[in-house]
Amino acid sequence: MRNLLLFLSRWNRLRAFMETSRIARPLSSRFIAGLTLADALTVARSVNLQGMAVSLDHLGENVTTLAEAETCRDVYLRALVEINSGDLDANVSLKLTQFGIDLSEDACLANVGHVVRTAAKFRNFVRIDMESSEYTDRTLGMVHSLYAETKSCGAVIQAYLRRSARDLEELNRRGIRVRLCKGAYLEPAAAAAFQDKKEVDENFLALARKLLADGVYPGIATHDERMIAGTLAFVKEHKIDPSRFEFQMLYGVRRDLQKRLVAEGWRVRVYVPFGEAWFPYFMRRLAERPANLVFILRNLLRG
Ligand SMILES: Cc1cc2nc3c(=O)[nH]c(=O)nc-3n(C[C@H](O)[C@H](O)[C@H](O)COP(=O)(O)OP(=O)(O)OC[C@H]3O[C@@H](n4cnc5c(N)ncnc54)[C@H](O)[C@@H]3O)c2cc1C
What we know:
This protein is about 50% helix and about 15% strand. The chain has 12 helices and 8 strands. It has helices at about 1-10, 10-20, 35-50, 65-85, 105-120, 135-150, 165-175, 195-215, 225-235, 255-265, 280-290, 290-300; strands spanning about 55-60, 90-95, 125-130, 155-160, 180, 220, 245-250, 270-275. An 8-stranded parallel β-barrel has the order 1-2-3-4-5-6-7-8, surrounded by 7 helices. Helix 4 packs parallel to helix 5 (about 105-120) and helix 8 runs parallel beside helix 9 (about 225-235). Bound molecules: flavin-adenine dinucleotide (FAD).
């Protein structure tokens, strides 16, 4: 089921239908703050009031024209201005395929560079999300060069990739902030990615320990209670201060766990996606927990 949902997430005709259908759109609200930046800022404010930080993500990936990439860049620039003037505890996350990396690497670097330099001006931060493994080298290359210039961006490492321990070591060596996650894309090549959940989980915990020991303010991004317990066991054993790392979770997923961690005194950041191009993100969330599909279909049938 996971593979089928991930395969469908890349089907453009289904995407076009879902994103414009008046029946389908309300389904997205389970995981998406709304269609506009204003919707996302409202959600960010309410998440901040619950004691959690935010990362705003303007949805959209694999754009097909550079004009779309520039529009997207401008949304991020506006988001940074609004975060600053609204005094929100929020940064932004973006994807390189949304900034045109498939069309022109130079244009993509210029667009992302503009956002990262603006974040630096506001003393804010840009997380460059990690997409499927065909982008890993190019994404890390861009993070390395923009970080060297601005010190205001960070990377994402996916525990399902076999190469991640090596990549993480290099990011730690350069002092670059890392978000650690399991990985959300279809990676069928066993030479590149662990196929067994147990191996992914073991790698996640090994990488989390490396980050907590040698990294700079890591983001431990998971809803898996065993990953969280393993992280906290290491934190307590090594007396790591709660201010030295944060947990990160997705909007609409395990709110109970988000609240519990905050009540226990740990830092939590919620990833808040918004925008009209919600379908691939939505399908990846269904793929992570196919039971969500039943929940969504039941709501649809109820009308
Ligand atoms: C803040 C953040 C940023 C991320 N950024 C990236 C990125 O840049 N690149 C990337 O490839 N992936 C990214 N991911 C996604 C990540 O790779 C995983 O696909 C996702 O987090 C699910 O893995 P898990 O660690 O929660 O564990 P899982 O083993 O998938 O899930 C553990 C438990 O968490 C709950 N859960 C997990 N997902 C859902 C869901 N969708 N709905 C309801 N319950 C759920 C369930 O109770 C499940 O049993 C990000 C995740 C987070 C939290």
